[in-house]
Amino acid sequence: MSSHPKPEPVGDVVGASVPKPDAREKVTGRAVYTDDLRVPGMLHGVLLGSPHAHARILSYDTSLAKALPGVRAVLTAEDLPPVDIGAVIKDQPLLARGKVRYVGEPVAAVAAVDPTTARRALELIRVQYEVLPPVFDAEAALRPDAPVLHAPRGPGHPNAASHIRLIEGEPDGAWAKCDVIIEDVYETPAQQHIYLEPCSTLAEVDPDTGRITLHTSTQTAFRVQAITAEALAVPMSRIRVLVPRVGGAFGGKVESTNQPITAALALATGAPVKMTFSRTDDMTMMRSRHGARIHMRTGATRDGRILARQVRIYFDTGAYADDGPFVANIGSYFARGPYRIPHVDVECWCVYTNKLRAGAFRGFGNPQIHFASEVQVDRLAEALGMDPIELRLRNALETGEKWLGGAPVESGTLHACLERAREVSDWQRRRQRAPPAPGKRRGIGMAAVAHVSGLLGSSATVRINEDGSVNVSTGAVDTGQGSDTALAQVAAGALGVPLSQLHFSRPDTDTSPYDWCTGGTRTTFTVGHVITQACEQVREQLFEHASAMLQRPVQQLELRPGGHVGVRGEPGTSVSFGAISGYALYVAGGPILASARWLFPAWQLDTQRTHVEGLTSMGNGFFVFAAQVAEVEVDELTGHVEVLEAWSVHDVGRVINPAAAEGQIQGGFVQGLGYALTEELLWKEGHLLNPTMGGYKVPGALDVPRAIHSVLLEHPAGPGPFGAKGVAEVSLVGVAPAICNAIRHATGANIRRIPATGERVLRELLARETQGGH
Amino acid sequence: MSSHPKPEPVGDVVGASVPKPDAREKVTGRAVYTDDLRVPGMLHGVLLGSPHAHARILSYDTSLAKALPGVRAVLTAEDLPPVDIGAVIKDQPLLARGKVRYVGEPVAAVAAVDPTTARRALELIRVQYEVLPPVFDAEAALRPDAPVLHAPRGPGHPNAASHIRLIEGEPDGAWAKCDVIIEDVYETPAQQHIYLEPCSTLAEVDPDTGRITLHTSTQTAFRVQAITAEALAVPMSRIRVLVPRVGGAFGGKVESTNQPITAALALATGAPVKMTFSRTDDMTMMRSRHGARIHMRTGATRDGRILARQVRIYFDTGAYADDGPFVANIGSYFARGPYRIPHVDVECWCVYTNKLRAGAFRGFGNPQIHFASEVQVDRLAEALGMDPIELRLRNALETGEKWLGGAPVESGTLHACLERAREVSDWQRRRQRAPPAPGKRRGIGMAAVAHVSGLLGSSATVRINEDGSVNVSTGAVDTGQGSDTALAQVAAGALGVPLSQLHFSRPDTDTSPYDWCTGGTRTTFTVGHVITQACEQVREQLFEHASAMLQRPVQQLELRPGGHVGVRGEPGTSVSFGAISGYALYVAGGPILASARWLFPAWQLDTQRTHVEGLTSMGNGFFVFAAQVAEVEVDELTGHVEVLEAWSVHDVGRVINPAAAEGQIQGGFVQGLGYALTEELLWKEGHLLNPTMGGYKVPGALDVPRAIHSVLLEHPAGPGPFGAKGVAEVSLVGVAPAICNAIRHATGANIRRIPATGERVLRELLARETQGGH
Known about the structure:
AldOxase/xan_DH_MoCoBD2 (chains A, B), 3 domains, AldOxase/xan_DH_MoCoBD1 (chains A, B), oxidoreductase activity (chains A, B)
């Protein structure tokens, strides 16, 4: 990565807390989201969910529903191409085909003139089922006699969507050399994304050409295009995807949501169809974070060198694999943590069960494994009588060391994050602090955090207009986090133009360059990279023309703030972008524009060093680091945990927009807080018990600590723009272990299962009293 | 140009008469034109026209109009930035400022809740004028004592918007060597474009950012963006232009129409504003073809060598220069015609008068000069006793010879066109044919035609989707002529994919690559060129990946129809575009896309050879040739001319879509027929007498000959796609002289002024009888 030169930004726009231009329209309610769209003749789509967790479909009768006045189409799997979709395993039909595999699985789709008629039609659809035995637990699903959800795809248990093994060193022999060994089983919940905007799609079909236009809430216009094309068996060129304002996504809108089925309804009716999920439909039918059970054992020498770790991970992917095998990859890769542990044995299963599918969610397998690892490392410190930060500093990987599997750590800044976290949180003093009041206990805990930034491919086009203003076009979706603003700043900084002279376009699959997805902590990093590459090509074109116009060699030229090319050392000699563009358009060269494209080079497996089985992809990315600290107060009577204050220290490489980065970090912390303390999908016999905002508790304003201190360290490195690194996911990853370590620090309760509800904290406190302390 | 390799198209889509995909929606009325757009809160804009041809504005009183309920804004020049616009001379305010210079010139603009209220408000606007003496004739306007329209811009008459002189050889001395000399004064009318769709714009303004979105009927999204930005003094990046279906343009929508003033109304009101002209507003306020008066003298030796020509051209540009100086350039360049005349003296004025501005119109100065030249060459043939085709063949330029000014003729195919025209029209037989009936006379005439193809810059982006389908994006506007279809065929042929797997996007200035304009016979030629260049880059990317995938060197690879890369000589070994794209997106390289950009290199003046003064630009382009033949029947009693049959022979280089090319040629012939026989704006004391479809006669179905035979010759050459050349304008250029030569052949009447109305033909017949024949 040292091959990426790091030019300094021109002007002062990079590093400025530029407000989001869409802030006002969102605050005033003027912003247009997909559900705000209305077109003449528009129908409304709804889906019928399965009442059974596992059943064979024997027959459909849609005649009554079709006969209801106002109903325009009733579709079942029989009306759709026999195509299954899926990012890794092609196992998901748009509507259940032959079988249902979870309660709520879409079985039929209706389009009608209004939502009420559509819902009424659902009640008139008759489906005959033969109920099959279900399985709800991932470990249980791997037993030989477990009910099987999908046809076997090869050797191994048919319920294993993936099975990974990573071994380094000689783990079996290493335990004997350990002075301290901690072993526990950790459990993490199926968390829901709870984006403010439930999934919504408006599909329009050109009656002459059959071309489909989708307006949809998504993280990726281009994947929606690809998946819809695949599902409906039409070429991608016949589908256009446009993305209105998006009200959050967090991984839940990486894969398709209701786009393909809405498009199918539009094709069936020849009319525009809008489908907007109710919150309950969204929670029941879309996806969640993978619930996980992790058996972990870690051993260290007395002087604090972590020697060995064994990990067994069960990711519950629900009824369909979705991104599960990729999540399992990340979970496995990160099972060693950001530490140089010489002997490691990781085994990971991604398992089908008869529940809602699990998929991508901010952190992507990493919050689960970080919870186990960082709680266990903390207990190891306790057992060794060491300060938790000290133990982590002693084992943290540094620049040039290898990650599990052999990928290089190119910018190993965990030490810097840990030291800064210790300093800003006043760690030493707060670790010693006395209880605040009778019945209340205070504690402070922390977690070291690592993640990757920069997955997969992107491209960008930059154009200089005739008047010297600039248009930048990418495929990146701003899901509300502000990437449009940050990426505009990147381009403005690369070319030295003010933001008022630059337009950054939202994606249109017809005309925008491809971007994979707003996910994987990659938008600022990866899309920012291709933008700087395209700007560099544009700069070369500008310099070539300016050289002819000013009669100076290119080597003497420089970009100047305000959109000028000047002669180095001659402040009075320059030519504006507008003049250069006029020259290019009317004298020589043609329009000034450039497209850049990039795919982060894949990690190379070091098979000399690591025994690897079952990885579905090698992955790629740039390691990023953080340290997170939480101070909590625990009510001894109720077990209720209040997070008082928090510190989140991140190496952002180079800050593009401090306010936006801090917003990401604070949002990540709060979502992590929900994961740690309250959020959990609860099922009973396959039925989701809490598919409402009343039953599923996300943190509210009163649950947020009085201060979440974001600390942005700048260690520019890697291909991100001006050395910037991503911050989107990493800000969530360490929150749960930091909070649980604080709970243990406050009370001694060893929280191994989150969310750490009052009930669970109390149970641990009671267990501890029964066992007479740890 | 021989540096442009000519790869053959892959597959059979190039050369096929693919139907336009938008044909059905247009025929069924479903197509959405700008005026079909409606958005919530939309206001309607109208303009107040000047009642005087020339007057000073003393004061405005808009208070009554503003007080009318429903009126949201009343603007005059005092409310606008003090900016004048214009392609060559910045002489046009959006609303008259200080002075009015023609009857109908916009003086004020109103936006109101409905069109009726808006029109009523116009009547309430009081403007005080001081009437000034007007001038209506171009030659009169150049007299020293003529009223002056604009402030002088330098030496020379202030009413001369441009003055050009081109001299080659020794014209003064050459006349003595001529055996025959013909001299006449020719006059051509101000023809109107009469696009089916009058000018229309919907302007929307983002209330938070002030960003302007224009939906408009135009030939060029990017020039509209530039001109509106200039007029309103905002950066181009703050303006987005989208182009719904366009109902014809023919040059009338090259420069701005009502876009800037509609945007100004939207900015003033903060609401969306739509302005759609009535036909009368459009005819009164927009622009026409330049009326011209041409004094021409041509001399030849007895054996048919044309030796000398003197030309004096007066282009009447009306009150504003608009594209007039460029039109004058073309008129001057083409004054020698496509003939090797060694001694030439051309002088050309583009002159302000107090009439509607004149600007671009299919042919762009060339129909005027071709009318004079081709009628005069025909008379020369007559005087020499030679067949008119024979005389032209003897003098036609061939490949490698120089145009007036020194530009090279790179593909001199006029001989081929003339010979083919002689053959297909059965020329010899029809020249001899007897009169059909008493009082009717028949004749056949022809014209040699030359034009240029390929002005100015363009760019294109081509993307391979994940499934191997293709998206092509350019800035080119399809004005109804079918360029979207032809350009899609170019891309499909360059890559070997079926059209069903390819999408060609309409322009969006936010995300599309720049294109200058759909004009200058350039869209298939120039945009087609950049598309093939972008496809070539994409092909290189495809081959590079395929080489890695197939383990073969790039040199052994070939494109195969259907979207495959195969190994040459091994029919069984290939890889699909989809597989290659998957490899690029997920293994190495990144998204497959490429942008190409181009500016036709400017012609180099040969100042050794040609004395040149006053050219506002050297121009550029690729010479294209045609021969047009018309057979007419003239009613001796009424002078009415009926065109019976026509032949239009074109070197199209390489035919992309025969049906579309024939459509262009037939449309051009009919528009030329109107120019020849019926179309003319008529003024009386500055007032346009016939600004309606009733008063201004365009050819109807009954006026069209029973057959217009389009003959497409293929002589691939030059940078156009696969050697294609343009056909859009050239199909109109020779029609008027061919028809008038046929009239003379039929009756002996020497038509020197068009349109050749019955009245004018009769007058010439009477004059001829009086003079006792020619």
